[in-house]
């Protein structure tokens, strides 16, 4: 559960970063990367065992179309993960991942999976992420639009239904 929570929080930090990147030029400092990095550091402090180390020896035993992606699979194996979340599906073949007890999901599918498993927790995290964007304070529609621009089409629909007219 701790790894799922870290993954969920990481996804929301990334969503916040995506939203920050979409802000108009008039509000470039609304959410700075320094704040997102502080959030990451707090997450790592709260869940120190979720920080994977010692995966390097596994890299050579992994065969991927792009050898530069092997460290991702190695870290997933060393960390005891079951899924790799990526838009880069082509470079993470199902057969190779299955050989290592892994599967792949797009960020959109992963966010939906988290929502299906723990809807209240995900919605609370989304509400918190929006609240943390104090300067821009996006409406639910604006937040969902930022998610769509980042490719989270189905998850954005869920958010739109969960926070109608907010």
Descriptive tags:
single chain; 166 residues; mainly alpha; two-stranded parallel sheet; 8 helices; 2 strands
**What is the average of the pLDDT values?**
80
Q: Please describe the biggest sheet, giving its number of strands, its sense, and whether it closes into a barrel.
A: 2 strands, parallel
> What portion of residues belong to β-strands?
under 5%
Query: In percent, how helical is the residue content?
Result: 55-70%
Following the backbone from N to C, one meets helices and strands in this order, namely: HHHEHEHHHH
Number of discrete helical segments: 8
Total number of β-strand segments? Answer: 2
| Shape field | globular
Structural class based on helices, strands and sheet pairing: mainly alpha
Strand order of the largest sheet: 1-2
How many domains would you count in the coordinates?
1
Distance between the termini: 30 Å
Low-confidence stretches: 1-10, 25-29
Spatial extent as radius of gyration: 17 Å
